[in-house]
Amino acid sequence: MTQPPPSPTMCVLPWIHLCASIDGVYGRCCVDDSMYHNELYESEAEPVFKLNADAVGCAPNSRYAQDNPDEVRGLTEAFNSPNMRRTRLAMLAGERVSACDYCYHREDRGATSYRQSINERFADTVDFADLAERTAPDGSFEEFPFFLDIRFGNTCNLRCVMCAYPVSSGWGAKKRPKWSSAVIDPYREDEELWATLRENAHLIRRLYFAGGEPFMQPGHFAMLDLLIETGNAENVDIVYNSNLTVLPEKVFDRFPHFKSVGIGASCDGVGEVFERIRQPAKWDVFVANVRRAKTEVNLWLQVAPQRLNLWGLRDLLLFAREEGLDADLANVVQWPDDLSVANLPDEEKRRATVELAELAEWCDGLDWSKPAAHLRALSAFMNAADPSELIAEGGV
Ligand SMILES: C[S@@+](CC[C@H](N)C(=O)[O-])C[C@H]1O[C@@H](n2cnc3c(N)ncnc32)[C@H](O)[C@@H]1O
Ligand code: SF4
Q1: 335 is a domain residue
Q2: CATH code for position 297
Q3: Residue with the nearest Cα to atom 6 of ligand 2?
Q4: Element (H, E) at 264
């Protein structure tokens, strides 16, 4: 079934998916502008945790709950919250939704958006016209979202140079405002959430885990166990982004229960480059974990191209080939500014343009189309007059 969406602004995600951020805000997807409130964590005095006006709600145990009592919801309520209902109706009417600006910004400049790629990904398995037809006049959609991205807290052992608090508790342990705690986990003790997940386990088909570091999150293990215990794991595809510097053996007892398991192992360079970016990780530990995990699951290298690894991409791609792994270089670092390749001096940009073109040609010669396309997009991003117009595809 290949099909056009019923309107030019429709995205399938508000009908099938819910995202839940590390600090307890629900979102339409992981690039939903309404979900992020990072500026609150820059305040020295404890701020009011006011939710953005177009947010779809917050979890009961989140810090937002006390300051937004009317917006406290469970998963199913958030999926049919007033803003989520408005979003569906606006999309069906062909209107734009401010929370989705990240996607429109790319589309308006000829780049592929997350909305477009996700619509394509589900075009063969989800009937978009049927979703539109079954949407109630008030925008509600009476189904459980089969694709969930719940970030079970920010627990992480690393402080990668391009990451920050509150995403990583490793950064939080080193640098955070006095009023907050290093570890944030609004879902682990949320009994209503766990009851909802158990009740609807038979309807779940896809899970994405990130964080924080998923292999350190108690909530992630509880989620896997819930699906196994209820006999539903065999219907579920699971996908991770992991730093793969921790790999508890107990994951391998659980993985065979699932329909499929994919791990995007974050790797931004080889040897010293890896260790400079992913502090205080050890390259040898990562390599051993890659070799262990790739025997059991589909594993690829997830690269965040930035100033500190531009000249190490050649070695990184060689390592991927030696290990028989694919590489995804779409998640280009835009922030922090000083790590972005867009801010290199002109002379270095000229040399890097030649390097990236050579690498892309080398990939072409190997019939390795994904890295080739990503390297060309990276070069375009680096050389664009307004680089934010050409961000390569990929969520964080
Ligand atoms: C936030 S991490 C969470 C999962 C896990 N801890 C990991 O590192 O894979 C998800 C992905 O975002 C990437 N990332 C972190 N900071 C970033 C930034 N400032 N810009 C772009 N990607 C970033 C990481 O390299 C990783 O591949
Ligand atoms: S491992 Fe992931 S969550 Fe942890 S600091 Fe690095 S990028 Fe951030």
Answers
A1: no
A2: 3.20.20.70
A3: 160
A4: strand 260-266
pLDDT in tens, 280-329: 999 999 999 999 999 999 999 999 999 999 999 999 999 999 999 999 99
Give yes or no: residues 172 and 106 share one domain.
Answer: no
Cα–Cα distance list, 370 to 64, 260, 332, 365, 373 (Å): 40, 21, 14, 13, 5
What's the total number of domains in the chain?
2
| Cis geometry, peptide bond prior to residue 6 (ω within 30 degrees of 0) | no
* Pairing of the two strands 147-150 and 17-20: parallel
- Side-chain half-sphere exposure of 296, counting CA atoms within 13 A: 18
Q: Is the CB of 241 under 6 A from ligand 1?
A: yes
- Determine the distance separating the centroid of ligand 1 and the alpha carbon of 267, expressed in angstroms: 10
- Determine the structural domain holding residue 245 and report its residue range: 147-302
Which atom of ligand 1 is least distant from the CA of 302?
27
- In short, whether 289's Cβ falls inside 6 Å of ligand 1 is no
For residue range 237-254, what is the model confidence (pLDDT) as tens digits? 999 999 999 999 999 999
List ligand 2's pocket residues with C-beta within 6 A.
156, 158-160, 163, 167-168, 170, 211-213, 243, 278
Paired with 301 in beta bridges are 265, 327
